[in-house]
Design brief:
Structural class: alpha/beta
Number of helices: 9
Mean pLDDT: 84
Strand order of the largest sheet: 1-4-2-3
Largest sheet: 4 strands, parallel
Distance between the termini: 60 Å
Shape: globular
Helix content: 40-55%
Strand content: 5-15%
Number of strands: 4
Order of helices and strands: HHEHEEHEHHHHH
């Protein structure tokens, strides 16, 4: 392969295909899929306030009304600090409500994660249960899973964050962007632990 072509290919890999209009295409494949747990962490905002500085990159998912003392992580990215990307949307699953997750939010999160593939990445939202776990699931599939491994990657997510109850709208957009043909949504909807968590967290009193 000519050197100039090789350099261009390496640049596209290192940039996480940031110029692509959608994710799609080949998924990133680090040398060892078993490193997923060591490279990726999910937590709440309170835990991120204490732990974020120990990572190489951080994705904050915040509500539009977050404040410094309730949901808003201090901005990182200074020399010696982790790279920091902020996504801003509410934890809702109805796209017609104010400030819902959007396809662009999921795409931007995946592109940032690709750019830092192989490094220690922390993803947090307010509680570390819904928005952050949905994006973490997408990152696991994109970087560590082959086509058809959505159910296995969901188990890996639950090993990382047992209380995970991924936001279904974020999952829907991720499924589209990663070309999963509905398998991400089906894996979440069919998982008994996640459905029990959903009933416990969001169901009416006495649902369980």
């Amino acid at each position: 392969m000519p050197m100039v072509v090789l350099r261009r290919w390496r640049t596209r890999l290192e940039d996480g295909w940031a110029a692509l209009p959608v994710i799609g295409g080949p998924r990133l494949a680090p040398p060892s899929r078993d490193r997923a747990a060591a490279e990726l962490a999910v937590c709440s905002w309170l835990d991120a306030c204490e732990q974020a500085a120990g990572y190489d990159a951080v994705i904050s998912i915040e509500s539009p009304d977050a404040t410094d003392d309730n949901g808003r992580l201090r901005r990182l990215g200074a020399p010696g600090e982790p790279a920091h990307h902020v996504l801003c949307f509410h934890d809702i699953e109805d796209p017609h409500q104010p400030a819902p997750p959007r396809r662009r939010h999921v795409r931007d999160g995946l592109v940032f994660a690709r750019r830092h593939a192989g490094r220690r990445l922390l993803i947090h939202c307010h509680a570390g249960v819904s928005r952050s776990t949905a994006l973490a699931y997408a990152v696991l599939i994109d970087q560590h899973g082959a086509v058809g491994e959505e159910a296995r990657m969901l188990e890996r997510l639950l090993a990382l964050r047992p209380q995970a109850c991924p936001n279904r709208l974020v999952i829907r957009y991720a499924d589209q962007l990663l070309g999963c043909a509905g398998r991400m949504i089906r894996a979440v909807d069919d998982h008994p632990t996640i459905q029990a968590t959903r009933r416990r967290n969001f169901g009416p009193p006495g649902a369980e």
